[in-house]
Structure formats: structure tokens, C-alpha cells
Design goal:
The complex is a heterotrimer of chains A (about 350), B (about 180) and C (about 250).
Chain A lengths: L4 E4 H11 L4 E4 L7 H12 L3 E4 L3 H13 L4 E5 L1 H6 L1 H9 L4 E7 L15 H5 L10 E3 L4 H18 L2 E7 H5 L1 E4 L28 E2 L8 H19 L3 E4 L6 E4 L2 H16 L4 E6 L1 E3 L3 H7 L5 E6 L6 H8 L4 E6 L8 H14 L5 E2 L2
Parallel strand pairs in A: 2-3, 2-4, 4-5, 5-7, 6-7, 11-12, 11-14, 14-15, 15-16
Antiparallel strand pairs in A: 1-8, 6-13, 10-12
Helix pairs in contact in A: 1-2, 1-7, 3-5, 10-13, 11-12
Chain B lengths: L1 E9 L4 H14 L3 E6 L9 E9 L13 E4 L2 H7 L8 E5 L13 E5 L1 H8 L5 H13 L4 H11 L5 H15 L5
Parallel strand pairs in B: 1-4, 4-5, 5-6
Antiparallel strand pairs in B: 1-3, 2-3
Helix pairs in contact in B: 1-5, 3-4, 3-6, 4-6, 5-6
Chain C lengths: L23 H15 L5 E5 L7 H4 L3 E4 L5 H11 L4 E7 H7 L1 H9 L5 E6 L2 E2 L5 E2 L18 H4 L5 H5 L5 E8 L3 H19 L4 E7 L3 H4 L7 H14 L3 E4 L6
Parallel strand pairs in C: 1-2, 1-3, 3-4, 4-8, 7-8
Antiparallel strand pairs in C: 5-6, 7-9
The chains are: A alpha/beta (about 350), B alpha/beta (about 180), C alpha/beta (about 250).
């Protein structure tokens, strides 16, 4: 166990990736994630790794496509508009079964939006974002410590099931500082086995090909269905979530990232007012803990989804609950700060006043 | 114990470094802490502010929307943050630069001539430390010693004599107490 | 009986799909012969483009990767920087390299990535069916400029060797053609140099090869020499062959 260190979210994420074996980073500056490439620019050379400031996000993700194809633990990072630019490359990476780590330190959108923390990229992250049928393993940290420790899980999962992984955090998590403890032993990639699919120097083995296409009749379908088997195994084994004060709850808040922190405060405030509130926090956004929500909906009859977007994650919550309980929404788009006070007020409205089913806060 | 703090001033007044220092000091004293900066598009000369939370429990939201203490180092910051302070909370005003007086009667107000004291110490840059000293002495959220210990951890490139000067500024600030 | 020539080891047995009279097959063979002669097949990685040469990953008997349109030089960067012992070449057409991938090729040259780029310029989009390329000549017909390219409507053909020659990081740039046998041999010499530069860690090398596309040029398919004649009479006037940049001699 290492000593606690006060770190900025973005720097903790970068250091966490390096400790998890990342040896190649390519990225392009964009606020609020600039500390990630800045940190990598001096940290990676210390480990014998490579940092490149690419000419664009498009180029960065394709450098990652190349680096991942060699079996190297690699990473790119950006914020919303830049992650949009990376979607083409991400689709190719998914289509070529390449493991990698991409982080999105989400800001207000659409378009140039603003540089405040937001959660408006949930659909993009969990629904593919790029073209075609594919999945990305998505983790949502809610503290600087989780920013530091999640890259480890992302790489492990990405290499085990051969798919891209993403850390979806908002600008607040990227910019805030908190004490950090690195929980996983540091990984030296030299000690990792070279994957049996990686391209590189071939000492007499048959040639290897990395790619996402097959133009022969029915063969692409076959390729995708092979991949889906791995998706199913992943869905069965890798779902993560956290529950707080749900045992006796009459209302469950559902939130991830910074919204989950705000919701924790709101849950405490509601309990002080005599309302039995609790929090369900999905940690993996894909795969989403739908089955657990379905179980909870057996006894909790009111759910309140809190998100810094217009109502995106609420889709997954509704799919999980499947009509077995009321689903309410407290939504705040555009990178505006969401406060515990306003969420607490929404809880009171729902529980005490039986408020309407759908509430978008302006 | 929970203390939510907002520090605000011109860019260059050391608002951000003061906030990080407070968080580091709180962490060293075994408290839960968060620091969150405002990160505007402007790089120099604009206003800067940050949120710091020092708490005995898990910190939920890192953005302090109703601070227990607001430290305002320039005139525009007073107008912005005075209305946000919690009733019964503390407003520390850098009286060297802020001429206006707060209107609210339900908060405590402490005037500290930060620039003047820093000038007396011979380095205008330590004015933020004067304010932090006053904060520590009047809230007890962290100790002046705790902040002093945190100095070399945050300002790694500063020479020992400059660290010493910052420590002096903290002490001078701590001499200012609410009546 | 004496065997005078055989298939290079660096090509697979896969039957190529290229049209009669197309230049790709010739250039593939030239590259494969160079790989054999330099004995680098076991450490070479081919980056296949989007376009007619998309199946290049299957034709070269070495590790290969196929990725997004125009991003070959970025993929090459990721591969070469993580596996410096490999020999990486990006095989790109004119739409791939000079249109959608303009930023990637220019910046790979700026960084002087130690890679080899083979740029096939046939002044047309082949696989998609004969649309205008960034290198289509003024007056040349294409399905998206049926009356012939005009400068007023579509601007001018881009000369990549000349453009990249202004970049310090581009250390070797040569334009060749494969429309006659002597020129095929010259192309082979240039490509060999471009690979040798990478072996010697010299930096960014590119060979631009003028090539025929009888199918989409609308030249007579039963007479490939018509296409060869077009290279000679029209293309070479706009795209002069020759060396545009050479490594500075040491000492």
C-alpha cells in the first residue's frame, strides 16, 4: 500500500494508467483533460514508453489502433468534441478486437458547448458512438481514487475479452483534487505475455492480420457473432455497482460520477428529513447492472435518476426496472452545477407530495 | 466537522495555490479533503476561485455552493461570494484591496489587510498566506502548523527562506481574530 | 531447364483481384521483391489502405493491418513507436493519402516517423467507381466531374512529392512510374531505397508511383497500352518523375 497523495483527477488517471502498464499514449489538447497528455509527456519516457501529441484526435485514435495491434497497453484521452472525432477509429478498434483505454473527461455539449463538467456523452459511450454493432467496456469513476485505480480493471477486461475500454468521467472529476491511494501492484508490461494475435516481429510463425472487414458472403456476420460470445461472457462476469443505504429505502437514487456524489449528499439530507432514501451507483455503464435494478424494484417502488444530462442513463434504468417501479428523473444539462439542495427538494416532492412522474430541472 | 471554503481573487493572487495548500494541510491532519478550481478560458489576469472542503466524513460534492467560509481577495469577489456564505458563516475580506463593506448582518466578517502585511514582510506574493493564517486561527478547520508543514509539499521549487517567509505570513494572518 | 524467375516469398498465393492493366499488381510484386532482397519479410508490417488495395493485407506474406481511410501513417506511427524493430510500410492511394489522409501524411513527415510510404497515384478513385481524385488532371473526366475537372469548380491536382519536400522531416521523396518496363525497374530501385532508409533509421521516406487505371479512365480494356500512353502523355507532364528529396550525405 502506498502513501496517500493529493492528486488532480486527470493526473491520477494518467498515473493509474502508467502503473497498469500503459506504455503508449497519443492525444490532442482539449479542456478539461489537458493534464492527462501533459502528465504523460514526461511520465511515459521515464518508463521507456512513448508519448505523442498527435495532429488531431482522429490521428491519435489511429496511432492507438496501430499501437494496440502490437499488443501494447496504450491509451488516448480527450473531452467530448474530441471523443466524437475518435469514434471512427474506435469503431475500427472494436471491429478488429483490439484492447485499449480511452478516457472521456466530459464537458458541456453539443457542439463546442462549454468546458464545465457534464454527463451528456452517456449515450455516445454506452451505445457505441461509432458505426456498426459493437460494444465498449465503460467504467464511471466517482472519486480521484477511482480515477487512479480504474485503468487497471479497464486493461484487464479489455485484454481478457478483446474490446476497447473507456473511462467516462466528467470535467469536475478531472479537475478536482483528492487524496489518492494506488491499490493495485504496479504492472511492468515486460512481464506480460505477448498476445497470440499481436502483430510484430515474426520469428517464423504464420502471418497475422489485424482488421475489421470481411466482404465474403455471411462472413462478417460470423465474425460479429464470435465477438458477441465474448460480450456475453463479459456481461455475465464484469458488472460493478455500489449500493448505499438501500436496505430500508423507500426511494432509490440512481446516479454515476459526480452526480452520484451529489446524490450521496442528497440521500443524507433526505434521511435527516425523515425520508428513507438510498443510492444505487452503477460503476460499469456497459455492461449496465440492469438485473440488480430489477431485483431492487421488487421492493423499492420509487427510483430517481440524477444526471448532468437531459435524461440519458434513465433509459437503462427504465430497461432494468421494466415497469416494476416508478422512475423519476432529475436532469441538469449544459454543464451547470447540480446541487444536493435541489436534488433533496426533488426527493421531497416525489416522496411527500407524490410529484409528477417526470421532472426536468431548469 | 465539516468546513466548505471558497477562495476568490484576481488571477495571480495565489488563489489556486492557497486552496491546494489548504487541502494538503487538511489531508496531513487526517481529514477528508477535496479541492476544485474554477477553470475559465482566460489564462492570465482574470478572476480565479476555488472550492475546498475539509471534513471528518466522506466529502460528497466538491463544489461548495454555500461556503462556511469565503475568503475574498479583491473587490469583484465580494459581490460574487457574499450572498453565497451560509448564515452564521465567516467572510474574510482582504481590506487592503476591498473598499466596499458587506451588507449582510447574518454572517461574521473579518477584515485582514493582506497586501499591507505582505508588504511589511517584504514580499507582496505572500498575501494569500496572510489570509490562510486568519482562516486557520478563526475556524480551527486546520492549524497554522498544519499549513506550515504542507508548504514544502506543495511549493516544491521554493527556496527554504521563501518557505520561511510564507510561514511568517501565516502567523501574521493568524493574529487577526474575530472580536 | 533453368528457373529464371519465381514468385517472391513476400507475396502469398492469393489470387489478386486487380483489373487487367492496373498498376497495383506490378507495384505489389516490386515491393515483395524488395522485401525478399532485403530479407525483412519476417519483421515487416504492411498497412493496407481503403480503396482498391484494401486486400493488400492478404497479398503480402507478412503481418498486416487494415484500418480507416487515410490513417495509415498514424497507424504506422503507433506500430513503429511501440515495436521499433519492425519495418512498417503504409500502402496508400491518392484519395487515401492526398485527400482524406492529408493531415496524417503531412504530420508523419513532420515528425519524420521512421516509416516507408508507397503512394499510388492513378488520378482517380478506383474502388468506388471512378470519382474525381485530388490528383485528377484538369480536363480529365470522372464520374463526379463528367465534363472534365475544371480548376474553377474543383481546384487543381495536388503534387504530394513537391508539397512534402518543403518539410524538414521528409528525408527521401521520389516520384516514379510503372507504365514501361524500364520505369518498373526504376520504381524498384526507389522502393528499395525507401525501405533501406527505414532499416538505417533515417526517417520518413515516400515513393509516389504513377499508375494506370484503365477501367476507370475509360481507356480501351483490350489495349492496356492506351492507359500507359495516358501516363506518358498526360500524367507525367503534371507529375514529373524524379527525386524530390534525398538523405543528406553523412560527414
Amino acid at each position: 500500500m502506498s502513501e496517500k497523495k493529493l492528486m488532480k483527477g486527470n493526473e491520477a488517471l494518467a498515473e493509474g494508467a502508467v502503473r497498469a502498464g500503459c506504455r503508449f499514449f497519443a492525444g490532442y489538447p482539449i479542456t478539461p483533460q489537458n493534464e492527462v497528455p501533459e502528465y504523460m509527456s514526461w511520465r511515459l519516457p521515464e518508463t521507456g514508453g512513448t508519448f505523442i501529441q498527435a495532429e488531431s484526435e482522429v490521428s491519435a485514435i489511429n496511432m492507438i489502433y496501430g499501437a494496440a495491434a502490437t499488443g501494447t497497453r496504450c491509451m488516448t484521452s480527450s473531452s467530448s468534441p474530441g471523443v466524437s472525432l475518435k469514434q471512427e477509429g474506435l469503431s475500427y478498434c472494436a471491429g478488429a478486437d483490439l484492447p485499449l483505454l480511452i478516457s472521456n473527461i466530459v464537458r458541456g455539449g453539443p457542439g463546442l458547448g462549454n468546458i464545465a463538467g457534464a454527463q451528456g456523452d452517456y449515450w455516445q459511450a454506452t451505445r457505441g458512438g461509432g458505426h456498426g454493432d459493437y460494444r465498449v467496456f465503460v467504467m464511471a469513476p466517482y472519486s480521484v481514487s477511482e480515477m487512479a485505480n480504474f485503468p487497471h480493471k479497464c486493461y484487464e477486461t479489455a485484454f481478457k475479452y478483446r474490446l476497447p475500454s473507456m473511462i467516462l468521467a466528467d470535467g469536475i472529476l478531472g479537475q478536482m483534487m483528492e487524496p489518492v491511494e494506488f491499490k493495485h501492484p504496479e504492472i511492468d508490461p515486460k512481464n506480460l505475455k505477448e498476445p497470440e494475435w499481436a502483430i510484430g516481429v515474426n520469428k517464423g510463425r504464420p502471418k497475422r492480420m489485424i482488421g475489421s472487414y470481411d466482404l465474403r458472403e455471411g462472413m462478417l456476420e460470423k465474425m460479429i457473432l464470435e465477438r458477441v460470445k465474448r460480450y456475453k461472457e463479459l456481461e455475465a462476469a464484469e458488472i460493478l455497482y455500489e449500493e448505499k443505504m438501500l436496505d430500508d429505502a423507500e426511494i432509490a437514487l440512481v446516479a454515476y460520477g459526480t452526480s452520484a456524489r451529489v446524490s450521496t449528499a442528497a440521500v443524507k439530507a433526505a434521511r435527516e428529513k425523515g425520508i428513507k432514501a438510498g443510492l444505487f451507483r452503477p460503476i460499469t455503464l456497459w455492461p449496465y447492472p440492469k438485473a440488480r435494478l430489477a431485483e431492487l424494484a421488487g421492493r423499492i417502488k420509487k427510483f430517481l435518476v440524477v444526471e448532468m444530462s437531459l435524461g440519458q442513463m434513465v433509459d437503462d434504468v427504465r430497461l432494468g426496472i421494466n415497469g416494476r417501479a416508478e422512475t423519476h428523473l432529475h436532469a441538469k444539462p449544459g454543464g451547470s452545477v447540480i446541487t444536493a439542495e435541489e436534488v433533496t427538494a426533488t426527493i421531497e416532492n416525489i416522496v411527500k407530495k407524490g410529484a409528477r412522474k417526470y421532472a426536468v430541472v431548469k | 466537522m465539516y468546513q466548505g471554503i471558497r477562495i476568490s481573487g484576481f488571477g495571480g493572487q495565489g488563489v489556486i495555490s492557497a486552496g491546494i495548500l489548504l487541502a494538503q494541510a487538511g489531508m496531513t491532519e487526517e481529514k477528508e479533503v477535496t479541492f476544485f478550481p474554477s477553470y475559465g478560458a482566460e489564462m492570465r489576469g482574470g478572476t480565479a476561485n476555488c472550492s475546498v472542503v475539509i471534513s471528518s466524513d466522506e466529502v460528497t460534492t466538491p463544489i461548495v455552493s454555500s461556503p462556511d467560509t469565503a475568503i475574498v481577495l479583491n473587490e469583484p469577489s465580494l459581490a460574487k461570494f457574499e450572498p453565497m456564505v451560509k448564515p452564521g458563516g465567516l467572510l474574510i475580506i482582504n481590506s487592503s484591496l476591498v473598499n466596499s463593506k458587506p451588507a449582510r448582518q447574518d454572517i461574521k466578517v473579518l477584515y485582514v489587510p493582506c497586501n499591507q502585511i505582505a508588504g511589511e514582510l517584504g514580499n507582496a506574493k505572500v498575501m494569500n498566506m496572510v489570509a490562510l493564517g486568519a482562516f486557520a486561527a478563526n475556524t480551527g478547520a486546520v492549524s497554522v502548523e498544519g499549513i506550515t508543514k504542507a508548504l514544502p509539499k506543495i511549493f516544491k521549487k521554493l527556496k527554504p527562506e521563501v518557505i520561511e517567509l510564507n510561514a511568517k505570513a501565516l502567523k501574521r494572518g493568524a493574529e487577526h481574530k474575530l472580536n | 531447364m533453368q528457373l529464371l524467375n519465381k514468385n517472391p516469398q513476400s507475396l502469398t498465393d492469393q489470387l489478386m483481384h486487380y483489373c487487367p492493366g492496373c498498376g497495383h499488381g506490378i507495384i505489389h510484386r516490386v515491393i515483395a521483391e524488395v522485401m525478399d532482397e532485403l530479407k525483412i519479410r519476417n519483421r515487416t508490417i504492411c498497412i493496407a489502405p481503403v480503396g482498391c488495395a484494401v486486400f493488400a493485407d492478404k497479398y503480402f506474406n507478412c503481418d498486416a493491418i487494415q484500418g480507416p481511410h487515410g490513417r495509415g501513417p498514424a497507424e504506422a506511427t503507433g506500430i513503429k513507436r511501440t515495436k521499433p524493430d519492425t519495418i512498417v510500410f503504409s500502402y496508400q492511394g491518392d484519395g487515401d493519402l492526398a485527400s482524406i489522409g492529408m493531415a496524417e501524411i503531412v504530420h508523419a513527415a513532420i515528425r519524420s516517423e521512421n516509416i516507408t510510404v508507397i503512394f499510388i497515384n492513378n488520378a482517380i478513385y478506383g474502388m468506388t467507381g471512378g470519382q474525381m481524385a485530388p490528383t485528377t488532371l484538369i480536363g480529365q473526366k470522372a464520374t463526379t466531374c463528367p465534363a472534365g475537372r475544371t480548376a474553377r469548380q474543383a481546384g487543381y491536382p495536388i503534387r504530394m512529392c513537391e508539397l512534402l519536400a518543403t518539410i524538414d522531416g521528409a528525408i527521401y521523396l521520389e516520384r516514379t512510374t510503372v507504365h514501361t518496363a524500364p520505369n518498373v525497374l526504376k520504381t524498384k530501385t526507389a522502393i528499395k531505397k525507401a525501405f533501406q532508409n527505414q532499416i538505417d533509421c533515417m526517417g520518413f521516406s515516400m515513393v509516389e508511383v504513377l499508375s494506370m487505371c484503365p477501367t476507370n479512365w475509360g481507356t480501351r480494356l483490350d489495349n492496356p497500352s492506351e492507359a500507359a500512353k495516358y501516363v506518358n502523355d498526360a500524367m507525367m507532364k503534371v507529375f514529373p518523375v524524379g527525386v524530390y528529396k534525398e538523405p543528406q550525405k553523412q560527414g
